[in-house]
C-alpha cells in the first residue's frame, strides 16, 4: 500500500492530511505482530507511535539520517537539527535501530536512553556482491580503475575527488568512473570530462551492471562530508575492492583497523593527491586492502547477519510487549 503524499524526495516526505487515518485503518485491518518504520523525515514519523499505541502494536524504527561523526560544524547543520528534532520522540518507539556505535553515542548525548537503541548495521548479500570476472577494464582500456558510486550532490563532496584527479593527471591508463546522478552532475560533468579520463555513467539501475563495475574496480572512493552508513561502500568492500572513504557518519568505523583507508573530511583533495598515485602504482596494496575489506563485510556486515539481528530484535520486542500486557491483567 502506498500512502498519499503532497511531496516526496530522497530527503523528506510531506504526507496528505488523510495519510494518518489511512495508515491507522490499514494497520487495524492488517493486525501485524510488529510494525517497523523507516524514519524518513516525515510528519508521520511523529504520529506513528500514537497510532501503534492506540492499536496496541509493538513499534520499531530504523533511524539513519546522515551525520558527521566528528561533529565538525555539525551543531549548525541541518543534520544536527534533524537529530535534535527526533531525539525526544524516539522514546515513544519500543526500539530504534541505528547503524553504528557513533550514531548511538550521538543520540545518547541528545537524551535518548541506551536501552531504546539497537545497533544493527546495513547488510550486503555477500554471495551476489563478491569478487568475480568483469570485462569493463578492457572495454574502456584501463589498466587501473577508480570508482565513485553515489549521488552527485554537495554533501557527497564529489568535486574534491574530481579536483584531485584533474590536478594529478593520472595518465591514459588510469580511469575514473562516476556512477550516479544528482543536482551537481551537469555542471561537474562539463568541467571534469573524458579529456581527463573521467567517465560519467549516470544512475545505473541494473544491479548486475553495478556489480560488474565494482568487480572491475581497483579502488572505490567515497569523499562524503556527511553520511549514515553507505551501502555502496559495503557493496564495494564485499566485491573485494580497496576502499578509501572519509570518516563521515559510520564509514570510518566500517574501515577501521586496516579494512580500508580513512580520510578526514577536511582537506580531502590534498589527501587524495597523495593517495591516488600510490594506489595507481602499487597493485599489491589494493589487492591486500580488497581482501581485508571483503573479510570485514563477511565478519560484520553480511545480509544474513543483518536479518538474524532484526529477527532477534522483533522477538525481543514481542516478548517484552507480552510481559507488559500480562502484568496489567
Automatic annotation (TrEMBL):
Lineage of the organism: Bacteria, Bacillati, Cyanobacteriota, Cyanophyceae, Oscillatoriophycideae
Lineage top rank: taxon: Bacteria
UniProt cross-references to InterPro entries, sorted A to Z: Glyco_trans_1, Glyco_trans_4-like_N, Glycosyltransferase_grp1
GO MF terms held by the record: glycosyltransferase activity
Stretches assigned to the Glycosyl transferase family domain: 141-266
Name the record gives this protein: Glycosyltransferase
Organism: Crocosphaera watsonii WH 8502
Boundaries of every Glycosyltransferase subfamily 4-like N-terminal domain copy: 19-126
